[in-house]
């Protein structure tokens, strides 16, 4: 068993229990079901009435993503203490950064939030890139207030900057 310490096992048990509670379904965007398994294990083969658009999709709030990311980070850090050569967090941070700085209306805001939550260090260049993204989002909003993607991008950059600011040198 690679998760040898009792502390790690306790973190994993508590996290599993926490994520199994109905109040946490909302964080994963599945609050309108009695059990997460109803959505997770539903298949089009067994249930012909199900198709990707046949149930009402809930929006996945960036604040929910922030909470989920912090919970997953806690689990990852607990496991990493038991695996000395583990590079999971470095790989996750690298992927989050890649998508945070790459234009994609669906992924970029989420990646910015994740990057902000999991980063252990940040450069001034990365902060400049986030501020440029914020600037572009603000410009887009000024062109038309109905631009939902720009509003989400602005929210994501503010969350990321809030998380990253304490990591900057004074």
Automatic annotation (TrEMBL):
Domain of life: Eukaryota
Name listed for the protein in its UniProt record: NF1 protein
Organism name: Herpetotheres cachinnans (Laughing falcon)
Taxon lineage: Eukaryota, Metazoa, Chordata, Craniata, Vertebrata
């Amino acid at each position: 068993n690679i998760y040898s310490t009792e502390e790690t096992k306790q973190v994993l048990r508590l996290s599993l229990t926490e994520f199994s509670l109905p109040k946490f379904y909302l964080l994963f965007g599945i609050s309108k079901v009695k059990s997460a398994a109803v959505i997770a294990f539903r298949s089009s083969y067994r249930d012909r009435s199900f198709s990707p658009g046949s149930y009402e999709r809930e929006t996945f709030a960036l604040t929910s993503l922030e909470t989920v990311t912090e919970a997953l980070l806690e689990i990852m850090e607990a496991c990493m203490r038991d695996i000395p050569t583990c590079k999971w967090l470095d790989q996750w941070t690298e992927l989050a950064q890649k998508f945070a700085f790459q234009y994609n209306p669906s992924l970029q805001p989420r990646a910015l939030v994740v990057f902000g939550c999991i980063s252990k260090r940040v450069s001034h260049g990365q902060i400049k890139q986030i501020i440029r993204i914020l600037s572009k989002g603000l410009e887009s909003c000024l062109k038309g207030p109905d631009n939902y993607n720009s509003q989400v991008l602005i929210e994501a950059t503010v969350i990321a900057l809030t998380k990253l600011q304490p990591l900057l040198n004074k």
